[in-house]
Amino acid sequence: METVVITGGSRGIGLALSQRFLALGYHVITSYRGTPSAAQMALADSSRLTLLELEVTNSDSVVQFAADVKTALAGRPLDILINNAGVIGPDAQAFDTVEAQAWLETLSVNTIAPLMVSRALLPLMTEAKRPRLVSISSQMSSLVGTGLGMYAYRSAKAALNKVMQVLSMEQAEHGIVVCPIDPGWVQTDMGGDAADITVDVCANGIAAVVEGLTMAQTGQFLTWEGSVRPW
Ligand SMILES: NC(=O)c1ccc[n+]([C@@H]2O[C@H](COP(=O)([O-])OP(=O)(O)OC[C@H]3O[C@@H](n4cnc5c(N)ncnc54)[C@H](OP(=O)(O)O)[C@@H]3O)[C@@H](O)[C@H]2O)c1
């Protein structure tokens, strides 16, 4: 049985990914802030689910989370890490309105935290047969995109992509596949009701991509359907 860690599992894509990987037979370790959501608690019937507290921007919380994950693994390696927790950032993100502090907080969650969580958990992955590490990015990061505004979110996800590309090169000698993944525009609290795809379609797609990842793909920016997305 393989184990997957999914950050930000209280709702949205992280919750749907937890459901999908449980259905696929994995041991799922997923996080909440404060207390687990009702939807997470509803998954807790499964003996293959572990719920752990994690605030991704708090270094003490990240250290404790890694220790708790190690305990939950009980000597087995961690096969998959999905850095999913993220925020859209402040309402005001236009050229005239974006403020530095709110922008920094967006970078903290979306760019810096995924590397800190990865650094804390990578030692648990080195013995896995096919270790895979993915971070949920966004099409709004794309350098060939033409969308305007949303400076905090776009820059945070574009920077996340670069962080993951560097990490992929550094981890290649250890055989760890590292990819940022664009989940599409998804019907969640963040994506809104008008989004293109349901959260289950998104999660099923990402799970299939993650299951099949090989070293040939490391360092690529992939879509939830598995194709290569231009940076
Ligand atoms: N929905 C879309 O269309 C879309 C498109 C592109 C990319 N994405 C990305 O996909 C990921 C998931 O998005 P979503 O739509 O599922 O968003 P969501 O419904 O807003 O859920 C966000 C999740 O991240 C958690 N989280 C946020 N900040 C955190 C922190 N500081 N520490 C720990 N957990 C934190 C939230 O926990 P709480 O419940 O405690 O707040 C929640 O579980 C994000 O990285 C997002 O940027 C989404």
Describe it for me?
Keywords: NADP, Oxidoreductase. One of its GO terms (molecular function) is oxidoreductase activity. It holds the Pfam family adh_short. InterPro entries: Fungal_SecMetab_SDRs (IPR051468), NAD(P)-bd_dom_sf (IPR036291), SDR_fam (IPR002347). This is Short chain dehydrogenase. The chain has 231 residues and is an alpha/beta fold. The protein has a single domain, classed as NAD(P)-binding Rossmann-like Domain (Rossmann fold), CATH 3.40.50.720. Helix content is 39%, strand content 14%. The chain has six helices and seven strands; from the N terminus they run βαβαβαβαβαβαβ. A seven-stranded parallel β-sheet has the order 3-2-1-4-5-6-7, sandwiched between helices. The protein starts with a strand and ends in an 8-residue tail after the last strand. The relative contact order is 0.15. The model has no long low-confidence stretch (mean pLDDT 97). The structure holds NADP nicotinamide-adenine-dinucleotide phosphate (NAP). The site of NADP nicotinamide-adenine-dinucleotide phosphate (NAP) has 26 residues, from helix 1.
